[in-house]
Amino acid sequence: MTRWNRTLLLGVASAAMLVGIGHAQTLTVTPAETLETQGLTVIVDQNHFSPIFFDEKNAGIQMVLHGERIATDGAVRLDRTPEQWAPVPEFVSRSLGNEPNQVVVRSAFKQQQLAYSVKVTAEPGGFRIAVDLDQPLPAALAGKAGFNLDFLPSAYFGKTYLTDTAPGLFPRHPTGPMAKDGSGDPLPLGSATKAITLSPEDPLTRVSITSDTGRLDLYDARARAQNGWFVVRSLIAPGAQKDAVVWHVRPNVVKNWTRDPVVSFNQAGYTPGRAKVALIELDPNFKAPAEAELVRLTADGTQSVLRARTQTRGHWTRYDYAAFDFSSVREPGLYAIRYAGRTTNPFRIAPDAYQRLWQTSLDTFIAEQMDHVGIREQYRVWSSPSHLDDARQAPPNITHFDGYKMGPNLDSPFKAGEHIPGLAVGGWQDAGDYDIQTPENAAVTRDLVWARELFGLDWDETSIDEAARKVEIRRPDGIEDAVQQIRHGTLQLLAQYKVFGHAIVGIVDPSLRQYAHLGDAGSQTDNRLYDAKLGKDEIRGNASGTPDDRWAFTTDLPANNLAVAGGLAAASRALAGSDPKMAGEALAAAKVLWSKQQGGVVKAGDGRDDSSSPRSAEAANVVATVELLLTTRDRVYADRLRQLQPVIAQNFPWLAGAAVRAIPLMDANYRAALVPLVQDMKAKADGPMTANPFGVPISDGSWAGSNQVVSFGTTMYLLHKAFPEIVGTAYTLNAIDYVLGRHPANNLSLVSTVGTASKLIGYGHNRADYSFIPGGMVPGVLIVKPDYPEAKTDWPFLWFENEYTVSTTSAYILAARAAAVVAAETQ
Predict the structure, then answer these.
(1) Is the peptide bond before 786 cis (omega within 30 degrees of 0)?
(2) CB atoms < 10 A from the CB of 393, how many?
(3) Nearest to 761 by CA among 730, 727, 796
């Protein structure tokens, strides 16, 4: 929620809050099997624990109270304060119960032989949670199994709680107490024999929980892991079976509460001639004004420029939408929107509104993600040289906790655990977890090449010395930053090819404790090569007995080979002038990797279990073929591309950009075959692909979809340039509007520091500081099933909404440049 929206909410509810008035709400079960009343939604296991990442803080019983998801993970757990990879129950089924307004969920810990049901039943003032075990607890789980409900820390910072009648204060920073038995477990902040009340002083977040079956404990799980929440927990008693845990949950609901309107717009502003439409997100119970106003900010205050009726945009998820069109206003200046008695933050209308959208993403975020170098920005050190001990061979037959997989064959000349020389060069750490994902590194390399070729990236703010492993941001060195970054990515891709003869899955930390490292990438390992002959803390020269060297997952997969072939072929074009030797090596490797896969590409996937859309080797073959054609103009690649036209047709939404880039080098029949595909793409973009008020494809999966949106924007730009008679410019502008603020839930720019108001608490290397990395783009709005769009502003640890990734940000650079071009066309 933006500061503006939060302030308005406090103002609307002020009378109720001053006296703490709520009402005994009556919850009813909806067709989606949630429990609802005005101001409260109880989500019952519509979102499941992940089979890969386990506890993502979006599962079990959840509460959306006064518009904010304040509680999650209501479930039986085997730890008092579970960490992300602690055991989680497996969802079995959900059904309506025998009692009115009751939902029953069956779950199980199969390995521990614990099966149970949880009944959630509406009752006066709230709802009842009852846990029934199929059999009494196995002896091994006595004192371990209990029912937990997690509460969002940032919703309770600085507020108080009552354990029975004993008062306490929720700490802003975890302070313990900790168990003294060496377990690393927190002790309770407080315990209650009967009831716990959270924030009795705040009617918006007040929740009381009463237990019929035993003690209630309140924990601060952040004392064990920074991403932990406040946990209310009751142990399951040995021998208990029916009604093993019974809670009565009483969320305070402010009578007749309605969520404040969210007025969303492009925080970077607008060029004078382009369409300018703000969207207003409305609680269906809110009495929405039919008119909005545009005001101009002047030295003497504000002046009204335009009053206009809003236009309905229908209902989507749980909200109604209206549009405020101020396209007729073209005069440059500073403006804001007034609606429902409040004024938004300002934005610009100016011819140069989009001239500085992408530079910070290139010169700061992508630079900060560079691996195997030290990164400094004036007085600030982002990282000392990192991972100089790369890498050891990962063992066979494992699935890593971050989703990397290794089958029985290593596809490597090295034995499990053996050091692999030559990999400690180049590359970018994919996200906040310091790993190198090979296909993502290839994507960044290609994105930067495309951005230079299509739009120009004439920008030099960074000094990069690969030999000295030294990077300085805000220190120009006379060499284009994009070229240096392309070279940095190429170093890693070529290193893999030189060592293995093929692309690998990636390089990642071997242990959970190391993987959870927060802060300086240079301190994640000791930068010394592991030597098993040395003692644990022994150091001898450049070797140590500490097994912290990252693992290389080396499976030889067609999709990865082709992704790297495409990246290297593109890089060879960009590097031809500045580093012809590397350009030649990149092209030679690309040709070999491509040729290797032309005998029949069938095996899909990229060697990671967490991919929401496993890479198609056939689709990757199209991209690689196009890149080699653009680089060499060799007929062999044109002939192969013609053979791959059925693949293009089958995967056109993903391959359209690459396909149209090849048009100048193909015959007229090739272009003609694309026309019906482009027409169909436009029809989908006007219909099911963008069936929401924002005009862009919004993901409804487990990872929010800003990457999908910017990729759509770039694709539609390329289709517009190739087929202007079919595809217009609105799609690309809708995409940039979305990521820069015109999206559900709030109106912050999803690119940190870009725009007047942007995402300033993100999931990056510095997330424990509740901070941001300039220029990084976060995933953005997640649809918490069944219908709650969420983009939390004050809690960094929801990776699916807040985690910067390097390939997402390079995709944003392309979309931002495309938007600037099409905006200029409208002047």
Answers:
(1) yes
(2) 20
(3) 796
pLDDT band at 599 (very low <50, low <70, confident <90, very high): confident
CB-based contact 295:303 (threshold 8 Å):
yes
Q: Are 131 and 118 in contact (CB under 8 A)?
A: yes
Q: Is there a contact between 482 and 367 (Cβ–Cβ < 8 Å)?
A: no
Distance of alpha carbon 819 from alpha carbon 646, whole angstroms: 30
CA distances from 686 to 372, 474, 653, 682, 821 (A): 45, 42, 13, 6, 22
Task: In whole angstroms, give the CA distance from residue 616 to residue 605.
Answer: 6
If pLDDT is split at 50, 70 and 90, which confidence band does 197 have?
very high
Structure tokens at 653: 């939404």
Looking at the DSSP bridge assignments, the partners of residue 227 are none
Strand order in the sheet with 90-96: 90-96, 102-109, 114-123, 126-133, 245-251, 207-211, 195-198, 160-163, 166-169
Mean pLDDT, rounded, for 250-261: 97
Of the CA atoms within 13 Å of residue 508, those in its CB half-sphere come to 28
Give the pLDDT band (50/70/90) at residue 604: low
* Burial per residue of 640-652, b for 16 or more beta-carbon CB atoms within 10 angstroms, e otherwise: bbeebbebbeeeb
Q: Pinpoint the alpha helices (H) of 459-520.
A: 481-500, 512-515
Q: What is the DSSP string of 179-226?
A: -SSSS-PBPPSEEESSEEEE-TT-TTT-EEEEESSS-EEEEEGGGT-T
Residues paired with 279 in a beta bridge: 264, 323
- List the structure tokens of 611: 């991919």
Distance CA 63, CA 42 (A): 5
Give SS3 for 74.
strand
Measured in residues, the chain has a length of 827
pLDDT digits (tens, 9 = 90+) for 92-151: 999 999 999 999 999 999 999 999 999 999 999 999 999 999 999 999 999 999 999 999
Question: Can you name the residues that pair with 138 across neighbouring β-strands?
Answer: none
- Quick check: pTM over 0.90? yes
| Nearest of 708, 704, 686, 703 to residue 695 by alpha carbon | 686
Decide: 499 and 420 in contact? Cβ < 8 Å. yes
**Which is more confidently placed, 606 or 516?**
516
Write down the pLDDT at residue 121: 98
Residue 36 or residue 8, greater confidence? 36
CA distances from 566 to 446, 488, 722, 814 (A): 7, 16, 21, 17
pLDDT the model gives residue 2: 36
